[in-house]
Each structure stands twice: as structure tokens, then as C-alpha cells.
Amino acid sequence: MTLRPSGDAQLTQLRNADVSWAAFDPIAYVDHNYRDLQAEDAEILHLVRDHFGDHFRKQGGGPVSGIDVGAGANLYPALAMMPWCEEITLFERSPANVRYLKSQVDSYDANWDQFWDALCAHEAYNSLGTDPRERFGKVVWVEQGDLFDLARYERRWSMGTMFFVAESMTTSYQEFMLGVERFMRALSPGAPFAAAFMEHSKGYHAGEHFFPACDVGESEVRASLEGFAGDFKVQRLESAAQLRDGYSGMIVAYGWRNSDALTPID
User: Fold this and answer.
1) How far apart are CA 1 and CA 145, in angstroms?
2) First to last CA, the chain
3) CATH superfamily of this structure's domain 16-256
4) pLDDT averaged over the chain?
């Protein structure tokens, strides 16, 4: 679920299972975060498009299968994977977000055009050779599911994204670590990935409801990935603007899934 913090409310020990995800308001969320292309998202798109584009330019391969874990009400991670995928799974828990995503598959709303245009600064997107809406409708499908249940899909997908999810669903550091593990274990060895995190988030609103967050920074993000990606970068965004109070910045991590098989976190 794609999430960003807001407000100055403080929560203690609110775990993922304690949250009413059906109350998440995707329309309010999109209106605030994605009606216009923000500087932070433009920077993320630049990093991700170059990472994926350079990977497939050097490694070849494709078409592949992709997954966006916790897609929420955000389409641009799927758009970022689209040139190389024969199928993209939008994996999402909230029933409201699932309905929103399904409403976008056949013909997504006009506000997402500016995100696609930003990706088209890279040749791989600009030379797709077909209407992006048509392509999106052919390769994208929505699956309702819990991030923690991804264990049954180990090594299933050949590329993946997870944006503002693991740190934005719980106050528990253990659940944050387990969320990143579930994402990474769902990827096959060598799969390129990109993930984004709110830095030192205190929680956020989506519509009228407040949702929890886990306080993480660059060191925690790096620690969550070290066992699963031998070659990766963790980068704090240069963009300084904040959409809401309650966090100190955004972090992007990108790299490749390694082939190590570590003992799962209990």
C-alpha cells in the first residue's frame, strides 16, 4: 500500500493486524499526492527508470514478470516496469485500494500521464511503440493479498517494486524487517528491484483516518536489504519539499536480488 505520513499524532505499538485497511481512502490520497507530479516523485522516477533501463540494456532478457507490492493508489511503479513485462501484478491488501486499482487497469486517469512522460525521458519508455494505456491494460492485473503471505510465492517474479509500504503499515521494527524480507524473497535471483521509504515517519492520514508508521532511516533500510541484495544503493532524495508534516525525507533503494537463502524472520 503506497503511503505517506501526515499530522503530529503519535502511535505506540500499533501492528499491521490492528489497522483497519478498509478505511483507507484512495481518492483522497491520489488527490493530495498524485494529482500533480511532485519533485520527490520526479526524482524517484529518474532513479528507477535509469536503474531498470540500464539493467535490461546490459543484461537483455524479457519479457519478464513484475510485481508491485502494496501498490495502494499509486500506478507509477507499475508504469516504471511496463516496457519489459509481459505481466505485472499489483499486490494490495486494502479493499478500497483494490477497487481503485481495478478501475484504472483498462484506461487509467489523465493525471498519470505526467508520470509516464517523466519516464519517457529514457529511451526504453519513449520507444515502447504503443499507447501506454493499451499496454497497461494488457499486462497489469490486480491481486488482493497480505504482504506477509507472499512467502508462498518465493522467487516468483523477475523484477519488483515496493513503494512506501514496509515502514508505513506498522510501528513494529520487526514487522518492517519482515515486510522487506517478504518482498525480496518473492523475487528471483538477479531480479532488479526498487523500493522507497519514508524517513522517520510519525504516521499519516489517508482521508479521515490515521495510519501507523515505523521510524526508519538510511541505516535501517540498508540493514533490511543486506541479506537479500549484494549489489544495491540506498539514496536519500535531494528533493526537500514535504507533502505533509511528520517525516524528514524520502529514501530510495535499488539493486538486484542475490541468490542467498537466509533463515526467515519469525
Assistant:
1) 11
2) 22
3) Vaccinia Virus protein VP39 (3.40.50.150)
4) 87
